[in-house]
């Protein structure tokens, strides 16, 4: 598989002005795959963390590089400083946790715009977020479960773990481990009668994360398990370079053998996106203040879990 080099900064097209309602007042950018062929293609929504922009998460994560090589679209919602001075998505505010309200409605609107104006396969829409963008991605997965195939949550929290900014700081540092009943009730709060499937969940979390405690990933997995019947669990070390952190992958499978939840644990890894800059087919990403070289291109690994990469 030949991968194109990362060219320029991010190659993003601003589609913000095309959003008519946009109640959450977000920016929206899309990346079209280079040299795209005929036919409908997958779409990946990428949500940045605090003090980031769409450009920076595009550069650090390497999603555009993969999109050009593998042929899929990437949509970047972006927070504005007049909504949150630190550019955090407001994942902790009640109105931004509800379907068809606030930032949830804006992200859904830009996704629907992309679907109606680009050749996108609606059966292959994914969401990916880091930190505050991860928590917001969880919100979106819970609000619109029938519109997503899978979501990757890097240092995020469970759905409705908090409902105010002050609570968010305490829960990020030390999450409350709620009962399965409470977690399930929150997960189904947008539609208590929902009988469809929830998206597959992929969690990536470092055990030395001082911003969003590792326990948040565990609570999120605990919550998502309430939406599935787990038939088996398995665990293995991910084969990476000896100099990289030890990464353990745990799969939770349904009766058909499908991994409905995948939990990557990175030992002694902090609050950074793990990447592996380089020219190799499984390398990518760029070092930024939020992304560090861990000899493990987590973006590629997630794309492979989504059957976007070989």
Give a written overview of the molecule.
The protein is of the alpha/beta class and 310 residues long. Helix content is 26%, strand content 23%. The chain is built from 8 helices and 12 strands. The chain has helices at residues 54-61, 63-70, 102-117, 132-143, 165-173, 180-187, 215-225, 298-305, and strands spanning 13-14, 27-31, 41-47, 73-78, 120-130, 150-154, 200-206, 232-237, 247-253, 259-266, 273-275, 291-293. It has a 10-stranded mixed beta sheet with strand order 1-2-4-3-5-6-7-10-9-8, sandwiched between helices. A two-stranded parallel ribbon has the order 11-12. The chain is globular. 47% of the residues are buried. Residues 1-9 have low confidence and may be disordered.
Quick recap:
The chain has 8 helices and 12 strands. The protein has 310 residues and is an alpha/beta fold.
Number of strands: 12
Query: Low-confidence stretches at least 5 residues in length (pLDDT < 50)?
Result: 1-9
Order of helices and strands: EEEHHEHEHEHHEHEEEEEH
Fraction of residues in β-strands: 15-25%
State the distance separating the first and last CA atoms: 8 Å
Helix content: 25-40%
Rg is 18 Å
């Amino acid at each position: 598989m030949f991968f194109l080099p990362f060219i320029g900064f991010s190659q993003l097209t601003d589609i913000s002005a095309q959003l008519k309602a946009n109640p959450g007042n977000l920016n929206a950018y899309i990346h079209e795959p280079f040299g795209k062929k005929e036919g409908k293609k997958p779409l990946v929504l990428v949500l940045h963390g605090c003090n980031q922009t769409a450009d920076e998460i595009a550069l650090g994560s390497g999603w555009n590089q993969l999109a050009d090589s593998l042929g899929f679209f990437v949509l970047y919602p972006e927070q504005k400083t007049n909504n949150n001075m630190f550019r955090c998505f407001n994942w902790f505010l009640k109105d931004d946790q509800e379907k068809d309200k606030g930032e949830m409605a804006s992200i859904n609107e830009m996704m629907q715009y992309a679907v109606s104006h680009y050749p996108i396969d609606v059966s292959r829409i994914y969401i990916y977020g880091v930190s505050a963008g991860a928590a917001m991605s969880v919100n979106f997965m819970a609000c619109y479960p029938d519109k997503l195939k899978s979501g990757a949550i890097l240092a995020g929290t469970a759905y409705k773990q908090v409902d105010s900014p002050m609570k968010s700081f305490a829960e990020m540092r030390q999450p409350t481990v709620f009962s399965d009943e409470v977690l399930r009730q929150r997960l189904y709060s947008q539609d208590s009668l929902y009988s469809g499937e929830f998206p597959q969940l992929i969690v990536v979390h470092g055990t030395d994360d001082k911003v969003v405690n590792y326990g948040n990933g565990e609570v999120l997995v605990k919550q998502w398990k309430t939406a599935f019947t787990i038939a088996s669990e398995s665990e293995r070390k991910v084969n990476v370079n000896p100099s990289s952190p030890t990464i353990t992958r745990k799969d939770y499978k349904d009766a058909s053998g499908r991994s409905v939840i995948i939990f990557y644990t990175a030992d002694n890894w902090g609050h950074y996106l793990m990447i592996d800059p380089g020219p190799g087919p499984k390398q990518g990403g760029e070092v930024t203040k939020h992304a560090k070289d861990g000899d493990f291109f987590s973006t590629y690994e997630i794309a492979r879990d989504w059957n976007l990469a070989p």
